[in-house]
Amino acid sequence: xxxxxxxxxxxxxxxxxxxxxxxxxxxxxxxxxxxxxxxxxxxxxxxxxxxxxxxxxxxxxxxxxxxxxxxxxxxxxxxxxxxxxxxxxxxxxxxxxxxxxxxxxxxxxxxxxxxxxxxxxxxxxxxxxxxxxxxxxxxxxxxxxxxxxxxxxxxxxxxxxxxxxxxxxxxxxxxxxxxxxxxxxxxxxxxxxxxxxxxxxxxxxxxxxxxxxxxxxxxxxxxxxxxxxxxxxxxx
Length: 236
Hints:
This protein is of the alpha/beta class and 236 residues long. The chain has helices at residues 8-12, 24-29, 34-37, 58-63, 71-76, 96-104, 116-135, 155-168, 181-185, 193-196, 201-223, and strands at residues 39-41, 46-48, 87-89, 107-113, 141-150, 172-178, 231-233. It has a single domain (8-233), classed as Rossmann fold. The chain has a five-stranded parallel beta sheet with strand order 3-7-4-5-6. The protein has a two-stranded antiparallel sheet with strand order 1-2. Strand 4 (107-113), helix 7 and strand 5 (141-150) form a beta-alpha-beta unit.
C-alpha cells in the first residue's frame, strides 16, 4: 500500500504513478471496493495499491472524518485474509497518512541511514509510535530497524551502526542494505532491483532482508499465534 504522495513505491514496483487512475487516495476517501483499487505489479511479483500526488489532498479530506485515523485499517480488513503480508509505505512526515498507517499496522519497520540526523528522526518516530500505542493501537510494536544506504568505509556510519546495535540489540536486522549504483539506477527504468539486476549487491541484500523478515515473523507467530494484518514502513 503506497501512502506516499511521491509514489516512489509505486514507481519502484514497475507501475507508472502518472498513469494511475485509482489510488490509495480513493481507498481513504471513497467507498470503491478494495479489489477494484488493487493492481497486479507483474514486474515486482506482488499486488499493489498505488499512490501518487492525489494523496496530497487526502489529509484535508481525512480531517473532516470522525474516524480519520482508522480509515485505512477499516478498509484493509476487507482483504486482510487474502495476503500473508500487507506492507504500508509511509510518507516521510508524521502526518494524517502516517497516523492511518500506524493505526492500521501491527508492527513498524524502520529503515534508517547511519547518520546523525537520522538518529534524531528515529527518536521522534519512536515517540510517535509510543503515543499511538497508548491512544489507539495497543498492539503496535517496532518490528525492526534496517540499516540502509550503508557505506562501510564511512567511520560515522560504522559508529552509528554500533550505537543502534548497542541500544536496540535484536531489533536491528542483521541484513544491511549497502549503497549500490544498481539500486539507484533501477527506479529510472521503472523496474524493481530484482528484475533490473538480480545479481547486484543491492538485490542480494534485499532478498536476504526478505528472508530474514519472514523468518523473524514466523518465529514470533510460533510463540504467539495469530497472523497480523499489516506492517508499516517508516520512510528512511
